[in-house]
């Protein structure tokens, strides 16, 4: 029943709203007014997993309850209920309320859609994304390779963002080459996002969560309402968008946000919609308030990468089972907090995750994912950990990003090369190495950087597999010039063992 057309609603109907569809303008809910349908929201105890970061659980449940309050204030009859599972909540609603029909906007995961199919729930086509996955599949069908850049240009032309007629603004589609500066010495140029004091509802939600969840308790960084999300969008456009492009790939111990928007949790819950975010950024650029490189870099993340990942999630149902590099080691205990690490870059990243359940995309990709890949960690172990840890985690986001982009577990379906690097990259793009006991220039010895040693070992382990990628020709040529490769590989084996024992 997925994708069914909207039908007139009656007072005997109910609309199921999932916890990542919290927007009055979406799908099935957009078509009704108070008195025409009851709104059902189910807080699933099964989804409040013991291993999930407390701030992620707090954000989702609090946002659902605030949304329920807003709908009730508008005049809707709202059935908000806690249940062991979403299925149990739906079945209880049906038994008690006996709706004539039950509808939902197409859910954002396969499991939720399968549940709607199994329970006979009418599904209204989703407009939460700018490219429906059916349209993405039609775009992908005739292509031998699905390059994000090709999709981005097609989408940008179709939607009209940063276009001057039929040409891209400024004459170039992609300004990524201008967006690779290391962090500046003065980090005060980056304005901190707004924070809201916790209220009685926050306290009520925190008291209802399972005890002993990982992570620090929330302190107000994360908005739990649409009004709060809109305020953070305005703040980003006004204060940080100007510098976003230049420092998009930078990492700094003294600024957890730099110039990043920190809007992904709100987009992924539906509190913000991608079109309104891109509209605000383009308006700021057209008014002369920010450079094109910043506006283009941000809009590319939203209408390019984010929509591309969404489409691939639906196109490749077996993506989560990928393991092209045949990695099977367990996740090092530094990831789960069972051990610490002396590596300054990773220690700072883990601290940020503990405090806020969020770090931006470069620490995710070039530190956390890269190190796990260099150590040969089993991809699904990384996927599970990241899904539990990040505040903006969603299955459709995590599977393609982790299996395709971050770990190259799909063997190049998404990315033409693995995103791994040695300590030189970390040293160039961050300030971490200045206070680290390991030397990014050394690949053997007691002060050798684990990223550097493990990088060369990774290339040696996978030399044959990576040889088919043109983008790996230079790194593999450099590998062949290493006169101390046996010593480097022995050092790497020691480091992997030390990481597994929690002593690195």
What does this structure look like?
The chain has 504 residues and is mostly helical. The protein has three domains: 13-124, HUPs (Rossmann fold, 3-Layer(aba) Sandwich), CATH 3.40.50; 133-315, Serine Threonine Protein Phosphatase 5, Tetratricopeptide repeat (Alpha Horseshoe), CATH 1.25.40.80; 321-500, DNA Cyclobutane Dipyrimidine Photolyase, subunit A, domain 3 (Orthogonal Bundle), CATH 1.10.579.10. It has 21 helices and seven strands. It has a five-stranded parallel β-sheet, with helices on both faces. β4, α4 (110-118) and β5 form a beta-alpha-beta unit. α6 packs across α11, α15 crosses α16 (395-406) and α18 (450-461) packs across α21. The protein is globular. The model is unreliable at 1-8 (pLDDT under 50).
Secondary structure topology:
Elements: E1 13-16, H1 27-30, E2 37-44, H2 54-74, E3 77-83, H3 86-97, E4 102-105, H4 110-118, E5 122-124, H5 133-140, H6 148-159, E6 163-164, E7 167-168, H7 200-208, H8 226-244, H9 264-269, H10 274-286, H11 292-315, H12 333-336, H13 344-356, H14 361-374, H15 379-389, H16 395-406, H17 423-429, H18 450-461, H19 463-466, H20 473-480, H21 485-500
Parallel strand pairs: 1-2, 1-4, 2-3, 4-5
Antiparallel strand pairs: 6-7
Helix pairs in contact: 2-7, 5-11, 6-11, 8-10, 8-11, 10-11, 11-16, 15-16, 18-21
